[in-house]
What does this fold into?
Amino acid sequence: MRLLRNDTFEVNLSAEGTVEALFMTEDPARMNWVIDAGYVQEAGYAQEHKPFGQWTAMVDDEQIESANLKPCIEVAGDTSATVTFVHDKFKVQYEYLLNNNGEWTWKIRCSNPAAAAVRINGFHSWFSLAYIMFRDRDVMRNIKHSCAVFPHMGGDFSKFAAVRRSNEAPHLAIYSTGERVAAFGTYCSYVNRFLEQVSPSLDGMLYHRLSFIEDGSSLEQSADSDWIYGGYAPVILEPYGEREWSFVFTTFDGQADFYTKALKYGHPGWTYSSVTTTEGKYIAEVDLPEQETLQSVKMYSATGEAGVVYEKDISSEFTIVPAAKSNRLRAVLPLKSAGEIKLVAELSNGKCDMLVGNVLEPVHKILERRAEWLCDNSFNTASVTRPYSFLPLSNQGESLGKLAFILMKNLLSPPVPAQVRKVELSAFLDLKYHWFEHGDFLHPKPLYGSFYRIYDFDYIGHVYYLLSKFDQSHLYYGSPEMYLTWAAQVMCMRLDPECHRNKREQEESQLVGIFILYIADLLADLWKSALMYWHDKLNKLWLALVEGLKQGAQGYQGAVTEHFYDNAGFGLTCEALCLAGLTDEAERYAPLIIANIGFSNDYRANAPDRWWEALSFMTHSLWGGLAAGAARSSYETIGDARLLEAGYRATMAMFNCYDWNVHSTTRKLKPGEAASTYSIAAPNLNMPELSRNRFGQSIFKKSSDPLFSSLFSDIEGDDWDMGEELVAYLLGFGTTTYLYTDSEGELRCVNGLIEPAERGWEITSYAAYPARYVMLEQGLSFVSSAGESIKRVLFTGGKFERAEI
It folds into this structure.
């Protein structure tokens, strides 16, 4: 092993020329920022290990692998090393340069040593940053020694933010300073023991891969649909010709610092509307590197059923922002056609940068079409085994989220009686008897063989609670009070360890779940309805759970669920602690949420980081939407605008799973259809057909993994676990628009548009059912009357006023 170092980094090189360890000298945790070979061996993944810098190439249809070549390593002191791999047709040279303090440079050069031209269909290197879910009950290892990786791809300015999961700086930034990177993929190694009656049961890691040359074959069908990136092609390398890529590695403190440092390495710094609606406006702001000017900006959009791509020059729309402290340029554009957009900006040096965004239909239209589609296509009256259920069928409670969504939508807009009735039929005749022996809420059925799953009851309780909110005139089988009582009974059983015989269920009864979306309202309504027995019993159990969360906060125990580290745990735990008024404890978890939510030049990569439903980093509609909702909800208690911004960009990324105007994926949607997962990586090397594609867990029915084939063997369709994320949206951004003041003193609007007016500012909400406007830092809010939507308000004289009657 060879050690290279400067004042900031220590790089350990193996005899194979790969990076075995990467440390920051001032890091008290001594995190290894690449996947550690020792842990890989310890956890039993050695056969699948892919060290940082190991490469493969396809040259004239011959697969060449660095693992089969003996490298020549030349070291100059402790600040640089050159590693050379030679094959008859292909030569690769790495340079690791730590000459400059504060950074290190990795150069990759490939050349053709032969006398004849060669065709290169692919040239890929493993980029194995420490994206690990450790199999370790000490959650601090996952918090301090693992990172999420947020890519910025397309154009000539690829960059990668590796964010420590604790959100404690320093983090690791990697900026491309050479030729264009063609693709950024992943391979997942994992173990899931869910069916073995153990918890936590899941661990694993993602190996990232850089493609310097990619002809599209790694991505299978997705390359044909991907109008946004595309352009994949082989390279003909003439005799003695060469290509070179280079990357600078440095530290950064947070998202803002990541983009500020990018300017130093020649990258433009963007702030943009990752997602807007046809009722709003698209805003893009850019800070340019020194000596650079904006040569041209073009916008490409794919709209209409055919997805025809249109090009428009918008260069003239960019003007200097008068109040900015830098020479920032801004464009504000109304976009009236729904569909994804690509903005390509060319600088005076000839290099191009790229943004990927989306324009949604008005969100209320998406929700209304979704509810209609579910009631027309998913309500299962004819089934012999489970009549009155909603398809796709599943034993997991997540499959009931669609019922909660339909009810919530009907509570916030004029109710559609037929929709409410179908959900009530399902709740009365299916839920009660499928999950409980003879419909007895104290006796859950062991639907997973030897056990039942505690989290399932959160969804059942939610459906009953939402039914209790309807007027009796909309209910046919029970009264609001009956459904309110049923919700309380289910939740009392769920939260009471003494109601469960097995250790697994007893322990998981004390873990937070999606019941956090309604527990406070349920308790309040029990009190209002004078159902004091159930109120007092449930309140006692809730307070006991909160006390456990409080005690566990010091050791971040809420970050552990069925998985060794899970945003479904720490997101909802933070939200629960805020709800309970335990702000100090909540503030311990808030940084984990901030570190978990992506930031990127592509709106789809703004998702909360999660991998197990796609075996790659992804947008997961349910848990991405709920983690985003937890960020927004926690902001209202903690007041950190990073939570608000992260929650919003992640929420809007989630709508990619419902958007029928998206044409860049192989899986197209019809109005009202949905698919639960979007795999962000391209390629997804475990399942290449999922690369930048939408899908549901039914894709795993034919998997060789016995867990997947068992859990999803009977599932049809792509939307079995969707719905509760839309409820979280409706409880937050579905009704509320926010104002806050940024670090430069500028007024910012989240979930809406802010424009100067004759008196102050006019705020236009993007919410589906706008009813609330908030400026937390000044303690200001404006709330409409019950059932009233207010699309616009004025912010003037330090207060909100109606802008329309």
